[in-house]
Design brief:
104 residues, 67% helix
């Protein structure tokens, strides 16, 4: 009788351990699938981010800005008589709300 009891306990322990092992294996498989899904999404986001970054570089390229301003918008550089030099001795920068002195 004690041998049967020990055998029953050992069998029950083996079944419980096997059940927990299978649950753990299932959990690991689910986590691996989630990781693959997240890696795929991350890859897509990185590709989109790189494409967006390249499109932004175009708009900060000075050559592109010059071409767009001169050809599409018809802008030109100012002539020498249109440029007024202003020396502000009060501070290091020019405030926009101050009056610009006129040439007398």
């Amino acid at each position: 009788m004690p041998f049967v009891l020990v055998l029953l306990v050992a069998t029950l322990a083996t079944v419980v351990i096997c059940y927990q092992y299978l649950q753990l294996q299932s959990s690991i498989t689910n986590h691996k699938h989630q990781i693959q899904t997240y890696q795929s999404k991350l890859s897509e986001i990185k590709i989109q981010n790189n494409a967006d970054e390249e499109s932004l570089k175009i708009y900060t390229d000075l050559d592109y800005i010059y071409e767009a301003a001169t050809k599409e918008l018809g802008m030109v550089y100012p002539s020498d008589d249109q440029i007024i030099q202003y020396d502000n001795t009060e501070c290091e920068y020019v405030r926009q709300y101050d009056d610009i002195p006129t040439e007398d």
